Amino acid sequence: MPKHKPSTLFLLMASVFGTSSAWAEELPVMTEMTVVATRTPNAVDRTPASVSVASGEALEDMQAATIQPVVRTMPNVEMGGGPRGDALIPTIRGVFGASVTLLLDGARQNDIQSPGMKSPLYADPYFLKRIEVLRGAASSLYGSGGNGGVMSLSTLSARDLLAEDQKIGGGIRAGYATGDSSFHLNGRVYGGNDKLDALVAVGRHGWDKIDQPGDSHLDPNDGNSTTGLVKLGVNPVRDARIELSHQFYKSENLSTNNPLSGRYRKTTDVVASIPSIQPTHIDQRNTVLKASYGDLAKQTPQAELSVYRSYLEVQMDPYGTNPKYGNAAIANYQRTLTRTDGANLLLSHAIGGHRLAVGGDLFIDKLDSASGTATIAVNPVNPAGERRGSGLFIQDEIAFAEHWKLIPTLRYDQYKATQDGGTQPANEESRLSPKATLAWENRGTLVYASYGEGFRAPAVNELFQRSTFGVFSWFLPNPALKPEVDRTAEIGTKLKYRNLLTAGDSFHLRAALFHSRVSDLISSVNLGNIPGQVTCPVTGTGCQYQYLNIAHGRRVGGEIEAGYSHDLWRYNLAYGRVRVSNPDSHENLFSPPDKLTAQIRRALPGLGISVLWNSTFVAKQDYDSTVLRRRAGYSVHDLYLSWSSVDGKYRVDAGVSNLFDKAYATYQSSNIYTNTYQQGRSLQLAFSAEF
User: Fold this and answer.
1) Do residues 493 and 446 make contact, with C-beta atoms less than 8 angstroms apart?
2) What is the CATH number of domain 6-690?
3) CB 509 within 8 A of CB 45
4) Are the CB atoms for 173 and 686 separated by under 8 Å?
5) Domain boundaries, the chain
6) pTM reported for the whole predicted model
7) Would you say 148 and 93 are in contact if contact means Cβ atoms under 8 Å apart?
């Protein structure tokens, strides 16, 4: 990995390319749009914020069974936590859990049951139209959460799939991967006219033990899932649309109750890990009703209202001792349910040099959980409770002095969290979150500076967790937790040119540097062993945990994305670096290691073939003050090939992920007592058809 400091690297590249406007022509306004940064549509390269966008086509090109492969190509963005799908934790700029706002068709995914341990989001890539990631404090637009950024997923509709003059269509996709003996079967039908459209899509997926380098594997990992999406759209009058969507994910899996961990098997030898084995059932549902009015053809609605319900239930059943897995089985059951009901309102209007947006939103999180055995009830660690949040915001995009733009934003939020039937007092507070961005743009060059404040309210489990059974852990409540406040300053540049080196080529560069000061950082702190306990089952750590406010935190770093295309070649590069520390104690906190990703794509149109090479280089993480969390560096390479028929109706994809069978473990927020290796070499094959 390069040894340059990020500021040196970014400023050097900016100085080299930033002076090129005199000898390179400006590209036309690109069609790739983003909404997440300002909640109004803008071209990505004209948006003064650090934003990455991936299309459904990118997911298909990488034959993605989850969004992880595509998201990991973005700088300072991770979807890590181990090779299992239910262990994929979104991380943006070193922030995870409740400090990242997750949106699925605009609905908040506020899972608060196991931060940093279980995935809060399950999405079938076959259903997705676009993934947008905004890096940096975003509470001025989205309320609680978003201190690290926002990850927004949008699903397909019939309007996205129907060709001009087409009334009905459908498609199928089938795939197989050797790395976990997984299969994927998907199908969809859709149709519509100017007034009405509908889409129905379903999926069935299955998987088995995960192959790892060195003739070993993670076992057990036996499971299957069923997925579905139904979306109905009505256009009652011109420029008005009402859309109802419902999607679900249901899975059954036999694995360790901490999916970040695992049990290694090599031939007949078993190395037991601390987590127990339990059958796990996951039920996720997401229903959204959205009404919008405005110039829909130009994607500029003047009014948008949506109401939604998101639901995630995780249940782990009792499982008796099985000789195949030794004695690491458990007789207890656990069930945790998170339900979020919410609504969003956005009004926007462009007049003169202004584009004004005002809006508000609210959400209600309900947490319910239970645990015990067939005969004995045990108090769950996460008690039932409720958190309510609401807010109002105003934003103006002001164009002035020909090349300048100022975007001030102000938001007011309040929240309240309570425990059902408990004796602990409620936790409530309000907060003003300002943000301001100043941008200059001319002939393909954009330079901006911004300052924004973000906050995130404590979750129910962070406030009221408790357990006193003492065999494994002792979780202490802290109803006095304060909200975490983030203050981020950022500077960045975006360049977009054509005919830069030769006729017909194009080049883009997006770079940003940021510095965040965090007050009252919410963190799960290890308080040592339970009084009177000599040893703890978790090697190297104690067994008492409590969420506490760390007075000060600091997060610094930067990211850069660059792309160049010429003729039939395309090159993409992304680099991210972030460091998180406690300036008072000089401890290094959770900070993902430096990551560089590179992609080379070559089209062979005469054969209908496209070839994609993807490389990921990750530096070693040897500076985390939690020594057991440190990881060695690694590089992983993937090769993908796709063939499409002349009419575009048929497609065959083949690929190899982890081509050189590299043994590596990702740096992650939890599970510090094991080194769970990622999946080894996997051969992939898929076939799809549209009709």
Assistant:
1) yes
2) 2.40.170.20
3) no
4) yes
5) 6-690
6) 0.90
7) yes
